[in-house]
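ASSEMBLY PREDICTION REQUEST
Request ID: AP-0331
Submitted by: J.K., bench scientist
Number of chains: two
Total residues: 781
Priority: normal
Notes: Please return the full assembly, not individual chains.
Input sequences:
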Amino acid sequence: MHSYRLGAIGIVTTFFIIIFSTVLLPMVLFNPTDKEHRSNDYTKVASNVADAARGRKIYVREGCFYCHTQFTRLQDRGYGPLVKAGDYIWETPHQLGTARTGPDLTNEGGRMASEWQKAHLIQPRAVKPGSIMPSFSYLSERDMNDLVAYLQCLGNGRHVKDFVEAPDEYRTTTPAGVALHNRKTVDTNASASANAGRGIYTQNCAVCHGLNGYGEGPNALSLEKKPPNFSRPYYKQYSDEFWFYRVSEGIVGTRMPRWAETLTEEQRWYLVAYLKTLPQDREVTINSINQIDKVEDIHLPKLSNQQYEPHHGGHGHHSESDNMSPSEHQMPQQSTPSSPKGTESSSNTDPAGTKEGGH
Amino acid sequence: MPDLVKNVPQLAFPHMRMFHVNAVAVGWLSMGYVGSIFYMVPNLCKTKLWSERLGNMTMWAWNLVLIGAFCTLINGNTEGREYAELGAILDVLVAVALVLVALNIYMTILNRRVKKLYVTLWYFLGSLFWFPLVWIIGQRTFVALPGLNDAIVGWFYGHNILGMWFTTVGVGMMYYLLPRLTQAPLYSHGLSMLGFWGIALFYAPTGTHHITQSPVPEWLKAIAIISSIFLLVPVLTVLTNFFMTMKGRWGQAVTDLPLRFAVTSCMFYLVTCVQGPFQATRWVNWYLHFTQWVVGHAHLALLGTFSFILTSAIYYSLPKLTGKEFYSQGLIRAHYWLKFLGFLLMMTSLTIAGLIQSAGWAMGIPVDQWGLQIRPYWFFRGISGIMIVLGQLLFAYNVWKTLYTKPVESVAKAAKAAEVKA
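STATUS: Completed
Returned structure:
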């Protein structure tokens, strides 16, 4: 009998020690402050427009947090700055979320137009083909406006600077990335490189992406997941490395192949140069055969007077030649001193480049 | 498919999900657990339940909670905290019911006619002390904590409703059922105590491993992850005990249907509890968090392990309570296979879908692109869900028929014959 009493005391004490250390202690020791004023400010939306604080209640009521999280993690690309402890001090009940069946919404505010958000709530697939979000068309006009106002407050205007980052092996932060950049012989900012890339694009990409990258190539009609519209501002934030990564590795879940298997590294860099020059002007969704590339204006990147040999280079001695002083065929107007390896190569390996580059 | 049901807020996915979680946790598992406790404790104490009237009252209170949960959650009347969605009135009602159940059971145990406490009673005693407290702390009904503290308390609760209630009562039931069903003595009472204290020590602080990548204090994460890994100790102790008890008697699971459910449950318990600690480690968590893998893991625990052991308890105790054989052994078999195969299909498809999602997050691929990729797996998951629901309907029909059919001699005999044949 005595031992049971001891046991009961044991159960009680253990449990209270645990409650003390993992529930009470954090409340005392962990008091983050919001010195940088990063937390969401729901008063930002004028009260005669909509009530963002009420929108938060709608967000809770409709259980958005079962599919959308509100914390960015180190590895999340394209979801804006990492969250800090102080961001959440006014958030109760917390909406950190448990699963991501949809995108993270930490920095959602300002990313899309309010009209877009509203259309997306009413019929997600109208503005985002292939989305699996259920429709929330049953929300009243007021609920909808407040919810959109809330969404626009998320992130408190934190600008998403590094919108997309290529994986480490493509960036100079890793040995693999450094090696990749040492092998790179193409100046992706030069318009002549873009011209070289244009041929590669027309041959390989235009059939789905359309000649100007609006995502309206003939093949797009049969694709369930439509190709993106590269004229959207979103794509203007892509870094060279990110374009290169996308082209090289393709996109899982779509018909976009791994071009690393068919195109050489050099060809892919030319492609990157071309992709960066795609226009930013219009939105196109194609749903019927009549909309496909009717008469598309041919888009040529502007040629400067720059004397440049985009198609030169890439014949195998890069790591050595980096250390050597630029030799025989050096071009006089090398624009960026940081990439000497683009200039010293001699042989022409790119058939597409010959047409457009010109000596 | 997402447009299948439109413009009906009651059928919107988030509302259905809220009710699904609460109906499973508060309705099916908790109600079944309390029922099993009410059966097992008097049996182990060789005495009557302290108060039948109080027991009935808590039963009605609990059913009232479930009706309330249905009416509120389906309309989105939620507190917005996962696993604690129920409104203030229902929170209080559950707490009161739990305290009354605990009182009833404690008084029964005080009035017991056997000197020693069997390990099942230890588990029930512990659970009935822990769970009301965890519930009251976790609901945060009348307090508004700042965001991350809210999350810390929330996950303390979210994980301990599993750790200090579903696991401990479920394991207690396994300790009760396995020796009874196999007619074998428990392998070791010493090991069972080690397992009990291991769970009591290491389960409660693990909650923060759900938010290892959020900006909560590192020491808290460390406590959570370390104790998650230490959980392997009690789990393996408990399972060693079960498997050694089963030694030489595995064949009985072929003919004894309640035992088959119980053994399946033990096997799934092994899988869950090996998965769990590894998922809690930082790098595995880094990769797998937020995905359908975790959903699969949760179903492995609540459906694979605890739902199976609860079903086993019902199949074992119902004939003993009513004095009637089950209406149909064939339906029990059908229930078992539908639930078992359905669950395996669900687990596999959710796990694969989770890995696809993980790869998507790790490689920075936009959501709508891997969203299409996991669709076939959700299709299979849908099929598995239908199988499980069908199995449960057969189960309900079987119970109904058993309770409300006048025992006909020939039916009972036919059932016996079928059992012998198989």
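REVIEWER COMMENTS: The mean pLDDT of chain B is 90.
SIGN-OFF: pending second reviewer
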